[in-house]
Amino acid sequence: MDTPLSTIAVVGLGTMGTGIAEVLALAGREVIGIDISEAAARQAVTSLEASTARAVGRGRITEQERAAALARFRTSDALSAAADAELVIEVVPESYELKQQVFRELDAIVSPTAILATGTNALSVTRLAAESQRPERVLGLHFFNPAPAMKLVEVVSSVLTAPPAVEVVTRLARELGKEPVAVGDRPGFVADGLLFGYLNQAAAMYEANYASREDIDAAMKLGCGLPMGPLALLDLIGIDTARTVLEAMYSASHDRLHAPAPVLGQLSEAGLTGRKAGRGFYTYEAPGSQTVVPDALTPSAEAAAGEGRTVASVGVAGSGTMASGIAEVFAKAGYTVVLAARGQEKADLAKGRIAKSLERSVAKGRLTAEARDETLGRITAAGSLDAFAEVDLAVEAVAEDLAIKQQLFATLDKVCRPGAVLATTTSSLPVVAIARATARPEDVIGMHFFNPAPAMKLVEVVRTVLTADDVHATVRAVCAKIRKHPVDCGDRAGFIVNALLFPYLNNAIKMVEEHYASLDDIDAAMKLGGGYPMGPFELLDVVGLDVSLAIEKVLHKEFRDPGLAPAPLLEHLVAAGCLGRKTGRGFREYARR
């Protein structure tokens, strides 16, 4: 199929359609923008003029290139204007009836060799193609918002699509400077198929009053390096749009994780659809504004504050990377630290690891030699927990095993002075089960640091039903002093980050199991389309497949949701000893060091 695609029509001049038109015009294509609304067409021209003027101002294009692009863009309120187009991309609202009407009319207008592309991210491309007179020339072309900036384009084939049509559109995407990913026809495709399940779970977490909207969003930004938190992202996408996508996904998968959280329906029906309405999960300065303004749900500093206990000295139990990282964090913040391990040799090795870390900071200019020496001087390495007798806060960072942690806390209960706060860094175990190993469960709390502790800003503060208010206040105050961002959550599996992150990773594995997309395409889709710093398979191999499987099992056991059952492929790889980078092979193979 040797179709030049020099003239392209874009049907629907909303934000997405206008963005696609800009990309095409700047790439030298003749672009016909079609919308039944004259106001929308005028706005598209205005937007294109403004965005290209900004591009000139930033040195991305010349004034001559801008003028040429604007000259290649014309608008119409009639579909008949697409008669000469070799490719038509429709981006009208997500409605089968509306899209089918557009395709029926286009069948009678465009040439028999023209390709018809739908920009849907939720509806069946196959269903739209089946009602066309040219199903072999119908496919999906899913751009991401904002189209001029986002590199990903999902090229969606139905069982009816002719391969040459896919090839020519894929070539176009590359010529536009995009990264095309070939996918089959299922709701959400790759990027949205993974993203919207995660967003839905975040909405359900908020609806259950498990954590505040601010804490959910902060946890995912700071804990996973995401550009936006899930609730803020839902407001940006449009809560009504998200609900539509999830309903389409649920109708196809019958997976409860895709069943739209009731709060999405309630907000949609109330007209609180996010930024475009001026209110969604958050309240905005005005409809369309990105500026969040305080509302009745905004937490006040006074409400968050409380009378805590005095903490001057900290004990850290453990000898691994996490323990030494936490000890370094506390020592840098001015605390006197006792780093205890099983035996003096292990404790000395852990302190040695801190010394090397501090030395690297000095070499990079982040720390002075004097500060390094002062920090190291605050740390005492001890071969027994008996050294915790006078600490104000004891933090354990030992193996993720309930029996081991319970035994350690039983020892802390005997060793630590009355009134000392006892904290566990568990990422998956019930904090209350650890607390009950002591005679003072009210003094026990979760402080879930993220690895590497010196660099990661997040701490999940996990209260049990028995944790005292002043213990909670103490830990929040300590987090502020060590320059970490605390988020509050209850004592349930996964807390915030892992409860939202690992089902997403599990669903990515299922996509590979089902031969829907490749590892590389899924990783590329989530980095380019979702703004993730790492693709899911890159992250799984870094975290460790055994660690990932253990967390998946804990989530499945607690929530009893079939959709949370670990993907068999993950179990098989762990059974084969393919645990990721640490073994040289996981989902990918790595060079041995």
Explain the layout of strands and helices.
Blueprint: E1 7-11, H1 15-26, E2 30-34, H2 38-57, H3 63-71, E3 73-76, E4 87-90, H4 96-107, E5 115-118, H5 125-130, E6 138-143, E7 152-157, H6 163-175, E8 179-184, H7 191-207, H8 213-224, H9 230-237, H10 239-253, H11 262-269, E9 283-284, E10 292-293, H12 301-304, E11 313-317, H13 321-332, E12 336-340, H14 344-363, H15 369-377, E13 379-382, E14 393-396, H16 402-415, E15 421-424, H17 431-435, E16 444-449, E17 458-463, H18 469-481, E18 485-490, H19 497-513, H20 519-530, H21 536-543, H22 545-559, H23 568-575
Parallel strand pairs: 1-2, 1-4, 2-3, 4-5, 5-6, 7-8, 11-12, 11-14, 12-13, 14-15, 15-16, 17-18
Antiparallel strand pairs: 6-7, 9-10, 16-17
Helix pairs in contact: 1-2, 7-9, 7-10, 7-19, 7-20, 10-11, 13-14, 14-15, 19-22
Structure summary, number of beta strands: 18
Mean of all residue-level pLDDT scores: 95
Distance between the termini: 48 Å
| Largest sheet, strands/sense/barrel | 8 strands, mixed
Poorly predicted runs: none
Strand order of the largest sheet: 3-2-1-4-5-6-7-8
Q: With helices defined by DSSP (H or I, 4 residues minimum), what is the helix count?
A: 23
| Radius of gyration (Å) | 27 Å
Query: What is the SS-derived class?
Result: alpha/beta
SS strand fraction: 5-15%
Shape type:
elongated
Portion of residues within helices: 40-55%
Keywords: Oxidoreductase
Domain 3-hydroxyacyl-CoA dehydrogenase NAD binding: 7-185, 314-491
Pathway: Lipid metabolism; butanoate metabolism
Family: Belongs to the 3-hydroxyacyl-CoA dehydrogenase family.
